[in-house]
Amino acid sequence: MTSISPQTGSRRSTRFILRLPLGSHWRRWLVATLVAWVLAAAVGVGAASLLRRDLPQVQSLEDYAPPVLSRIYARDSSLLRQFGEQRRLVVGLSDISPWFRQAIIASEDSQFFRHPGVDLKAILRAVWVDLLAGRKDQGGSTITQQLAKDLFLTKEKLWTRKLQEWVFALQMEKTYTKEEILTLYCNQIYFGHGYYGIEAASRFYYDKPAAALTLDQAALLAGLVQRPESYSPVRSPERARRRRDLVLRRMVSEEFITSAQAEAAQARAVVTHVGAGAGSRHGLYFIEDVRKKLLAQFGEGALYKDGLEVATTMDPTLQQTAEEMLRDGLRTVDRRRGFRPITENVLEDHGTEPEAWDDPTWFMLPGVGRTAYGVVLESARDKVHVRLGRDMEGVLHAEGALWTGEKDLRRLLKRGDRTLFTPLEDPSAGGGPVSVALDQVPQVEGAVVILDPATGEVLALAGGYDFERSQFNRAVQARRQVGSAFKPLVYAAALEVGLTPSDRIYDHPTVFIDPQTGDLYQPENYERDYMGLITLRTALEHSRNIPAVKLINHIGFRPVFDVAARLGITTRLRPYPSLALGAVEVSLLEMTAAYGAFANGGLLLPPHLIRRVTDREGRVRSAAAPAASEALEPAVAYVLTQMLQGVMRRGTGASIADFPYPAAGKTGTTDEHTDAWFIGYTPSLVCGVWVGLDQSASLGFKQSGARAAMPIWDRIMRFAMKDRPPAEFSRPPEVSQAPVDPLTGLRAGVRTGCREVLLESFLPGSEPATLCGRGPHFRQQLPYFLHMKPIDESQRLVLSRDELDTLRDEEARYLRWLPLSRSLAITYGDSSLTVGVRLRDEGPFASWGRWRTAPEPPGQVPQGRLLLTESAPLPEDLPEPPEDVLPLDERRGLDGRRPQAIIIQADR
Fold first, then answer.
1. pLDDT in tens, 562-574
2. Catalytic residue (one of 110, 253, 484, 543)
3. pTM of the predicted model, to two decimals?
4. DSSP letter for each residue of 832-861
5. In this structure, are residues 898 and 892 in contact, taking their beta carbons and an 8 Å threshold?
6. Nearest in space to 159 (alpha carbons), one of 61, 41, 76, 324
7. Whether 379 is catalytic
8. Residue among 70, 97, 107, 108 flagged as catalytic
9. How does pLDDT run across 84-115, given as a tens digit for each residue?
């Protein structure tokens, strides 16, 4: 036989000399043994002929289709994830490195190209070695036999199974070429860690295709075949190295490589890139949602066995950015909620000194601004020394923990404490400890959705702070109250029924009465004040609650239901006045897609994450073909977008008014600050952000959509838009524009004296015709509770005697009657002014005893469709409110004024 020299790796011949005693006893033993072998062979041949009847047809290999990995790809064709019961990728022989082919033959079956499927010499040699060793120590199976066993037979160690294996191997060799058998074998064998076939193994261990394997890598993988888990370089690098070197010596012995090549390969360290080829570490919420959709559409068998190739819509760079900025934003919000005492100490909990602690997260070097776990080495009043890595230290100064409100760092940290720190300097620059800031794992959660409004493709989706911490996808699975982010749907419905951004509405204390039950609903503005007479644009820009409820009550609930359904909102909506304030639970994905229709000229493209699915043969199993639907008329979508642009320029989104691209959006905040939203869009991207707690608890004082969610949106969208050409929203030809005064909503002109002029957009024929002027400007200077009072041409309030007396009594804090000048001195907020009063004629001796021959004009009051309901009388047959409801005559606004009562129009 041939053996290998461990010193040179060269082939040498070894002779086995068997010396038998010449005694009759040994001669009889030899004869008996030979006879036994002959009989065994005969029995084996006979048994094999019988066993053939139960064997599967070898021709079935022509349809060889082993379980294959399904692979999920991003839009740039980078691998995101692989799914499969057996992680396998099937390739042809030409796609396998020649080094591996030679290594597998040298280590597993050196006579592969010479035997007919069964190597009798190898079998006899294995039997002889096992007899001498007294145990099964060597196998004699060929590559063909191993393939037969893996494909068609069980793992039972029975003689019948062994006989079947021989027969099947012979059949395979008669039916298929050696190259075909070797190809099947390379795709079938197991390499450990759940990976089957050389292609999947090469990508897992080395992050490269099998065709690119180097000699040392090929030898290591070939060595795994015998005992994949024992020789794994992940579990035992030294054992893997010894096995690799043995394979290299076998390759020298079989003259596949030279001794010099083997020595050079042996000198290389065992270095793998385990997991690098398994897919992206980002987008886990996105990938999991894709997996669920594939399961629902194709079933488990297809996903885990059929090798689906799935092209998704994910933009990897945008996805990573969205995740990182969401995390940063959530930590910022969480810090505002206060410092929470540290709960883990390596000294007390693990019995390990901080200097010896090896954190499981320290396999990566932290970067500037990226949080990392550290352990406290020493704590002083104004300085704390921490370990941030195996060979890296940091220093926390008092200013790095200002957010905690604690000046003595010893009260926050002690030796051994393990918590999060954020490097403020580049750790890779060297030069000693780096400055760090104290951080903590947030309890606050959030979600982000970014999509292309023109296609409906979801470019990025993050469903929480950390997928490993919680797999619940808050972008898709969670339905939370949307707050004022729902208001654009109400205003869209108002535009459809003919209202305009310049129509005026009265913002003042108001109670809405349910005519069926007598129940009372009294909304209040977030700012806890009242603006009086304002335009619909101003009401939306500043997210005024009372005008929104008045608006939905005026136009009716059904138009809003219809708009929401066309925009893809699947939640069942109910005709309650609070609907106008977003008292409805909707997913972030649905709301973001709805805003996408605003950006896309009214066309709604259903959001989707999958572009195309093909099978292992390249056949298309599914392709995205979203059907666009006209959710809004283009003119309505454009006018609404112009109003939402004002939100970011002058309204609740004004803190990011310097956003350098044309953009529109809306904040959303629910009661007690439990949910914070911001959804905004440019002509090419729409992004939605939600921030909250899973338990629906308060985020904290003033944690509104503008403060908690909008900064995250701002950072993400600045990054997302930096490489996109700036573009304006396209104005439909039917939309007209006219100059208006933004305070009064009236038409501005050369002589109207308007301090500010806004070029407003209108649907066809709805432009305001009334010119602005001194009178409307004067009215806006008055306190809000006087906005609806009549004013004559001389800018005097026109009041009855009773109205004047009521004002003097109820507004004594702000008004002082001056009888000699017949005027009111007003001090309200930061302004002080004096307003003349003309009392209405009530007869020949009215108006303080003056004689009038003809009544004076009654004075002008603001006109408009929305203002007509302000004077509508209440029905006399209203039911009494429930006992636990504060009655109308005891109600007051936030400033103590009596509210106006309006009937809820729930049947429209």
1. 999 999 999 999 9
2. 484
3. 0.83
4. EEEEEEEEPP-STTHHHH---SSPPP--B-
5. yes
6. 41
7. no
8. 108
9. 777 788 899 999 999 999 999 999 888 888 88
